[in-house]
Amino acid sequence: MLPELAFVGRSNAGKSSAINILTQQRRLAFASKTPGRTQMLNFFTVLDDAPLAQRTPCGYLVDLPGYGFAKTDEGTRARWNGLVGGYLHGRRMLRGVVLVMDARRPLLPADEALIAWVCGRDDLDGFRLHMLLTKADQIGTMQRRAILGQAEHRAEELPLPVSVQLFSALDRTGLDELRETAAEMLGSVDEAGPGDQE
Ligand SMILES: Nc1nc2c(ncn2[C@@H]2O[C@H](COP(=O)(O)OP(=O)(O)OP(=O)(O)O)[C@@H](O)[C@H]2O)c(=O)[nH]1
Ligand SMILES: [Mg+2]
Fold it and tell me: How far apart are CA 186 and CA 181, in angstroms?
């Protein structure tokens, strides 16, 4: 069994886009303009950074359906709780969660509910949370600073190690940082970092 890193967040936050950029498999995670597009757990294999022919899988990035989109009915919500909630709570190979939030609207009640869900895991030992403030291309420098500060402040209050960063799938702001953090969270830290080789 390989370690897993789950991308969670509100619908339309940019989870699939972040995974696409990270794995550079543009169409695999089905980024979409329609909120609620991702409906199942999608697993993407991460390869180690051995020379090309010798690469082996070292973990999975897991693209999860979003929560909190407007048209959610009871059935959809129950399905989400069962599928995603069950996965986040019980999955032993899950090493951490990347909480993807639109930098213009971070830490909404649905995000806080997700944080509470993660903090309720039986096994928080070695578990990490990474807040990915995405669509940073949509805001200016001052706002970026303020939002980063706000998220960092919230991070300090939580009972597990939390890191925070700005990101944009559009202009690739923060891509290296995300790549390094994902590798660390999967436990495959390497001086060079995966993806540094051509
Ligand atoms: N400007 C900007 N748009 C982005 C960025 N990342 C994603 N988007 C857009 O936001 C929309 C939603 O992106 P997705 O990656 O499909 O979002 P998701 O979180 O996977 O959504 P669900 O699967 O519905 O939960 C798409 O129109 C993307 O093109 C970004 O960094 N900047
Ligand atoms: Mg998606």
Answer: 9
Residue 35 beta carbon below 6 angstroms from any ligand 1 atom: yes
pLDDT at 69: 56
Q: Is residue 158 part of a domain?
A: yes
Nearest CA to ligand 1 atom 8: 14
| Both tokens assigned to 160 | 């597990």
Asked, for residue 197, whether it belongs to a domain, the answer is no
Q: Residue 125 belongs to a domain with what CATH number?
A: 3.40.50.300
Name the average pLDDT for the chain: 84
110 lines ligand 1 (CB under 6 A): no
Domain containing 166 equals 4-185
Residue 35 predicted with pLDDT over 60: no
50 found inside a domain: yes
Number of domains observed in the structure of the chain: 1
Question: Beta partners for 134?
Answer: 102
Whether 195 is covered by a domain: the verdict is no
CA dihedral defined by 16, 21, 27, 30, rounded to 10 degrees? 10
Whole-angstrom distance, CA of residue 114 vs CA of residue 88: 9
Average pLDDT for 98-110 = 95
pTM, whole model, 2 decimals?
A: 0.87
Average confidence (pLDDT) over 155-178? 96
